Amino acid sequence: MVIFTKRPAMHFPFWLPALALINALTFFRFWIDKRAARLGQRRVPEANLLMLAALGGSPAALLARSLLRHKTRKEPFATRLQLIALLQLGALIGWFML
């Protein structure tokens, strides 16, 4: 005898729009900083860019660095950004292994 049970409803993750928003904001801030660098205007502080990456915008930060060719050789910024992305990746892997 086969018993069919009702599957739990798939809920839309509440954090997904927030993650999309922080990534969009991160890419936009990198673009603003690149534009300011070209025009000789006031720059976005590196601490702000790293904070956006730490809040979940590291995929957009890495993408912006590649597409915009911005801050690719800047140290220690590049190392700090890579460390943030690596820690987030490790946390994500750990979350799925639980």
Residues in helix, %: over 70%
Which sheet architecture does the biggest sheet show?
none
Indicate the structural class: mainly alpha
Shape: elongated
Rg (CA only) = 18 Å
Order of helices and strands: HHH
Uncertain runs: none
DSSP strand content: under 5%
Average residue pLDDT: 91
- Helical run tally: 3
- Distance separating the two termini: 33 Å
Number of strands: 0
A few lines on this structure:
The chain is mostly helical and 98 residues long. Helices cover 70% and strands 0% of the residues.
Task: Give an overview of the whole structure.
The protein has 98 residues and is mainly α. 70% of the residues lie in helices and 0% in strands. It has three helices and no strands. The chain has helices at residues 15-39, 46-68, 77-97. Helix 1 crosses helix 2 (46-68) and helix 2 crosses helix 3. The chain is elongated and about 70 Å long. It starts with 14 loop residues before the first helix and ends with a helix. The relative contact order is 0.13.
